[in-house]
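Tokenise the fold.
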Amino acid sequence: MNKIMMSTAVLALMAGATHAETLRFAYASNATPTKEAMAKFGELVEEKTGGDVTVEYFPDSQLGGERELVEMVQGGLLDMTKVSGGLMESFSSVYGVFSMPYLFDDEAHFYTAMDDAEIMGPIYSATEGQGMVGLTYYNSGARNFYTSDSPVESVADLKGLKIRVMQSPTSIEMVKMLGGSPIAMGQGEVYTSIQQGVLDGAENNEYAVTVARHGEVAKYYSYDMHSRIPDILLISTATLERLSEENRKAVIEAAKESTEYHKELWGEAIEAEKAKAQEEFGVEFFYPDVAEFQAAVQPMYDELKSEPEKYAVYEQIRTVATE
């Protein structure tokens, strides 16, 4: 973030911080139902604390992109933010396990693992030494490949394609293993980059082709479901320490309840976006056999054994799939 943007952000935050117990919550561009869940969090906080704690929002990248927002939470300029678990790998390597391809069997397995305190507790606290911890997660759907010129129906179809990925080392390695050429860039640059031929495609959930309107420039969406990377709700450790024990408990409860609210909305919302992508954008959907894709990335799991912390989380997640 440049000095002008930082100064503007600081002034905005100072202007908004009119109450000692107002939580300053900024986030980048998001679609419903995630926005609704974040708003629900604020309602629950106010309700549970009897108005002693309120939440003030700075939405839609007003204060910068996700990385800048995490850094502002670290620096005490923000109390809270919501960012992709993929980005969090840059702050704690253990988050990289969520970018591992084909980690979860399906959505039910994803929810079982993410709701397991033994799995997620240590991950949320992994950044405590950096001045922030995770409170909860939101489903951000299954990430799939979508392209501009032809569909991805086999690993061979990805060969040489320039694919946008998040700024995640694991995501970059995955695309390389599948034969593509990964290009890490911000979400806001993807549309123009596909339009101009800088990219051949990207990988994301259905909202990318509708809300971000990528369906105007990429008409082929392939359900390989290579990853389910959660969004993470972060809070400053200084903020938690500032709150009374009662209010701290209320904030933590509100966060978890907002996740349950998000679950209620997510399934229907995704189906609606898929229908919109087909009807309004003319996007075609394809369902490749993922076995070939899984085999191509197996070396990543062999290499993961050299990172004991991440491999231990991987084993925990795989274990709950069989329960």
In short: The mean pLDDT is 92.
